[in-house]
Design a protein that fits this description.
Length: 316
């Protein structure tokens, strides 16, 4: 076997005369997390919570004391925090992970600085201006740090900038056209995160980060197609449908190639939701609702069976 998991050990134990100390040793080596793994997990968890709570504390401080603070104090405090975080990350000798977390905290403070600046001087900027400026100001840090958490912030800001631009400026854009743009942008970002590290000889992005971006793309396509089914036909729906089918086909192929159950599960689940929306649009009578219920139960059961078969096949 390429990898022994807990279930394999239990099966061998039930059909052999394995002694209890040997079983315990195998579980500790192949199944249980050791002390160092838990220590590393706790360090990362506490570090992430510390950065998050510090950023939230700064934001709540300004929200609570807003009326009592002078405008130069408001701007000066946040600028001092940003400069201190950047200087610490650049000049203090510490672990690379801590430096990247400091950059993440500074990136969050940039958003707070933009919000405070807009409130103090009443710039009248639309929401998309706020998120777009935030995105541009942290781009250099995101590129040079190549930190997955910072990339998550960057991708989120890109999506929010495009969404609010369509909502507040591009009134001629239809809802489906916006879904097409969001879906295309997230798919291109996903392809870049998967393909670019190898030719540039960079460390590959962690699997959880790739899966988060893929989940965002699948969610956008699912909502867009499910919404477009109930609306009047337009060219954007056909474009989104074709892009989705192409992306889903490549996603299934990539999941089989990399032996990842994640892609083989979220894509069929998305297809099930879209088909349910199509059936509901065809008829909303009680008989159709009953048929949709049977379809959901049957399809989900079949999908779980397929996933279990692939898991058993790849595990052995």
């Amino acid at each position: 076997m390429a990898k022994i998991d807990r279930e394999d050990i239990h099966i061998i134990c039930d059909h052999s005369n394995w002694s209890e100390p040997c079983v315990r040793k195998m579980l500790e080596e192949h199944s249980y997390n050791d002390v160092s793994s838990w220590q590393r997990f706790l360090k990362l968890l506490l570090l992430a919570l510390g950065v998050s709570f510090t950023a939230a504390g700064v934001i709540f401080f300004f929200a609570y004391n807003w009326a009592d603070l002078h405008k130069f104090v408001k701007l000066g405090l946040i600028e001092f925090l940003i400069v201190s975080l950047i200087l610490t990350a650049v000049f203090v000798k510490t672990k690379p992970l801590i430096k990247k977390m400091l950059l993440l905290a500074a990136s969050l403070m940039v958003g707070a600085l933009n919000a405070v600046f807009g409130q103090v001087y009443q710039t009248g900027a639309d929401a998309y201006d706020f998120f777009l400026g935030w995105t541009l100001f942290v781009t250099i840090w995101v590129l040079f740090s190549n930190f997955a958490a910072l990339w998550i912030l960057f991708v989120t800001l890109l999506n929010l900038s495009l969404f609010f631009y369509a909502e507040q400026v591009a009134h001629e854009w239809s809802e489906l056209f916006l879904f097409c743009l969001l879906f295309a942008m997230n798919v291109l970002l996903l392809m870049g995160f998967i393909l670019i590290p190898k030719p540039l000889k960079m460390a590959p992005f962690p699997s959880w980060f790739i899966q988060v971006v893929a989940l965002a793309a699948v969610t956008i396509s699912t909502i867009g197609l499910s919404t477009g089914i109930f609306d009047s036909p337009e060219p954007s729906f056909l474009v989104l449908f074709l892009m989705t089918m192409l992306f889903y086909g490549v996603g299934i192929w990539y999941g089989l190639k990399t032996r990842s159950l994640f892609y083989i599960s979220i894509i069929p689940f998305s297809v099930i939701i879209i088909l349910c929306a199509a059936l509901l649009d065809f008829s909303n009578e009680a008989s159709m609702l009953f048929a949709i219920g049977i379809f959901i139960v049957t399809s989900i059961t079949l999908l779980i069976k397929i996933l279990l078969n692939y898991q058993k096949k790849w595990a052995n």
